[in-house]
Amino acid sequence: MMAEQNGGVLVVGEVDNAGALRPISFEMIGAGRPLAESLGQGLAVLLMGSGIGEAARTLGAAGANRLLVVDDERLRDLTSEAATAVLTQVIQNLNPTVVLVPGTTAGRDYAPRVAARLGVGLAADCVGLAIEEEELVAVRPILGGRVQTVVRMPGSRPQMATVHPGSFEKAAGDGAAPEPEPVPVELNEAELRVRVRETVQGGGGSADLESADVVVGGGRGLKEAASFGVVEELAAALGGVVGATRAVTDAGWRPHHEQIGQTGRTVTPRLYIAVGVSGAVQHLVGIQGSDYIVAINRDPDAPIFKIASFGIVGDLFEIVPALTAELKAARG
Amino acid sequence: MALNSVVLVKQVPDMNAVKIDRASGKPVMGGQNVVSSYDAYAIEEAIKLKEAHGGEVTVISLGAPGAKDVITRALAMGADKGVLLTVPDPNTLDTLSVAQALANQLQAMTFDLLLAGQGSDDYEDNHVGPQVAELLGLPLVSNVNSVEVADGGRHLTLQRDTEDGRQILEVDTPVLLTAISGLNEPRYPSLKGIMAAKKKPIEQVAAAVEPAGDRITWSDPVAPERTVTGTVVQGVPAADAAKQLVGWLKEQKLI
Q1: Cβ contacts of A192 within 8 Å, gap of 6 or more
Q2: A308 shares a domain with A171
Q3: Separation CA B127–CA B10 (nearest Å)
Q4: Do B171 and A262 touch (CB under 8 A)?
Q5: What does the CA dihedral A170, A173, A179, A185 come to, rounded to 10 degrees?
Q6: What's the pLDDT tens digit per position in A127-184?
Q7: Does B127 touch chain A (CB under 8 A)?
Q8: pLDDT 10s digits, A272-312
Q9: Which of B131, B173, B216, B220 to mutate to test binding with chain A, by most A CBs within 10 Å of its CB?
Q10: Is residue B169 within 8 angstroms of chain A, CB to CB?
Q11: A4 pLDDT exceeds 60?
């Protein structure tokens, strides 16, 4: 098989705490498939976790040539040491040309460790990937997302990248459904030193922000925690998620993990709606990767209007509920 | 038992002062260099732990000789001593080069806790923490927003937010933690702290470092293409403004 001769492209999927595939798993195949085709090589997908047989079959049907499965209870929480050991061994056996890791909390922990263990380069949090002259060319945002740099790794085998959530089309499946191949790996107990005692559901959710198609961000203009109801209702009407500025999270109106901006999350949705957000640079750097920015603010001189595709100057407490009602009416 | 910490810090250009040159699309840095945002949380946490449990806080930075300023600031906040690993040209280094140089230095030191910011304001790789952990064979917990010390500093209970919710983790020291906002409120150096910092030692060492070479290369940064139509609706009733926006969202196929 081609994948075995030439290495091919290896992408890694991920399941959540409940064992369901994260949406980025399909984006990984969407990102890896064109690279494999450009190289004329196969695409293998690796899923590691605990009790993941069903999830693996679903992911395999999304369009991979090979489906590698490492199902081990010690991989339940994908701690960096365990995941590093597994991915390193899979890479050493498979000898892939390109390895793509999801830019999730776990992926961003273990991918750099694997790259260090193998002594190879790693392009972080990429939003664009291509093959030129048989080499991976990766585009990634830097300086708060305001500029991009093009990364190449000519001296590295494999060439590794982490993939920014929400940046690639989800693979829909091409009918191929490879048989799951269980991969034996060695896990050294002495290396598994971090123990996840408990995961309290719903305390986080930051990844939803990063992979969301629509984000509604609330700022100081909302005046108090209770006002976020109008933001939540607008987000719900659009099927989006809620984010906030640092002023809001520092004031305790919203949890810290919802903070978008320089010291918070970077979002890249199709649509970002800024509600009562003045547009401090620290916030703008976290939203500039959005395809479209809409601003609602009472101050016509607010900096947010300078980067907004569509702006409404006025009282957000009148406009946002009117907008939510209009959206509901438009949907029927 | 005392808890000795080493904090990895990076000096970065002030992101608030970065301007994009419209003609070339290239970024122009402002004059000021600052402590990378997340590193400030790491410094603060180390100082807080020292105040609560005793021990010593050492700050290490790798950079050009001017990077000494970030160490001085950490000393003014309350750290005890600094090490500056100097490199002639930091721009030839990738994260693995930097991690190797830091790991070489750290191998000769003893500590219970290694702290770093989750990522740097400028390149945002989020690699150096995990790669230093890897090279030193240490466990890693990233995105930490709460640290509790038990068993005289031998054991830590940590919290962090992930995609699934709030994780509570257990680990024995030594360990590498990367800090994120929400961990604490970094203090401003007091006048007394600034004066005291002048007497604290900063060791300057030429870093044992190898450039990235062709392991990884990166282009000059360029601003991505961005077209802003910039429709602004003003002075119309809320219901009309909402209708116009919904119409626009339909045109753009956003709904």
Answers
A1: A74, A79, A81, A82
A2: no
A3: 13
A4: no
A5: -10
A6: 899 999 999 999 998 887 778 899 999 999 999 999 988 788 889 876 678 999 999 9
A7: yes
A8: 999 999 988 778 878 988 889 999 999 988 889 988 999 99
A9: B216
A10: yes
A11: no
pLDDT of res. B225 = 60
Please state, in angstroms and rounded to a whole number, the distance separating the CA atoms of residues A3 and A10.
9
Same domain, A157 and A286: no
B224 inside domain: no
A187: closest CA among A51, A109, A72? A72
Smallest CA-to-CA distance from B73 within B201, B230, B249, B194 is with B194
The beta-carbon neighbor of A149 closest among B37, B139, B221 is B221
Mutual orientation of helices B95-106 and B128-136 as an angle, nearest 10°? 40
Is residue A30 domain-shared with residue A120, that is, in the same domain? yes
Q: Please check the confidence at residue A39 and state whether its pLDDT lies above 60.
A: yes
Tell me, yes or no, whether B248 lies in a domain. no
Q: Which domain holds residue A254?
A: 206-331
- Residue B61 tokens read as 């930075």
Contact flag B162-A115 (C-beta cutoff 8 Å): no
**CA dihedral of residues A150, B20, B66, A140 (deg, nearest 10):** -20
User: Is any Cβ of chain B less than 8 angstroms from the Cβ of A258?
Assistant: no
Element (H, E) at A203: none
**B229, part of any domain:** no
Q: Work out how many domains chain A is built from and give that number.
A: 2
Q: Give a yes or no: residue A305 inside a domain.
A: yes
pLDDT tops 60 at residue A239: yes
- Quick one: CA dihedral A122, A123, A124, A127, positive or negative? negative
- Determine the 3-state secondary structure of A193 from DSSP: coil
* Mean pLDDT estimate for chain A: 90
A163 and A257 in a common domain = no
With contacts defined as CB-CB under 8 Å, which chain B residues touch A233? Answer: none
Whether residues A127 and A241 fall in one domain: no
Asked whether residue A201 is domain-assigned, the answer is no
Q: Quick check: A123 contacting B, CB < 8 Å?
A: yes
Residue B244 lies in a domain: no
What CATH number has the domain bearing residue A128?
A: 3.40.50.620
Question: Which of A160, A191, A222 is where one domain is finished?
Answer: A191
Q: Is residue A200 part of a domain?
A: no
Q: Which residue of A has its CA nearest to B21?
A: A147
Contact between A100 and A115 under an 8 Å Cβ cutoff? The reply is no
Number of domains in chain B: 1
* B134 at A interface, C-beta within 8 A: yes
The residue with tokens 């305001």 is A146
Closest to A258 in 3D by CA, of A295, A298, A212, A294: A212
Question: Are A37 and A110 in a shared domain?
Answer: yes
Question: Within a domain: residue A99?
Answer: yes
**DSSP one-letter code for A256:** G
Enumerate residue ranges in chain B where pLDDT < 50: 227
Binned at pLDDT 50, 70 and 90, residue A200 comes out as confident
B254 touches chain A (CB under 8 A): yes
**Which of B146, B245, B250, B251 best probes binding to A when mutated, by most A CB atoms within 10 angstroms?**
B245
Q: What is the DSSP letter of B253?
A: T
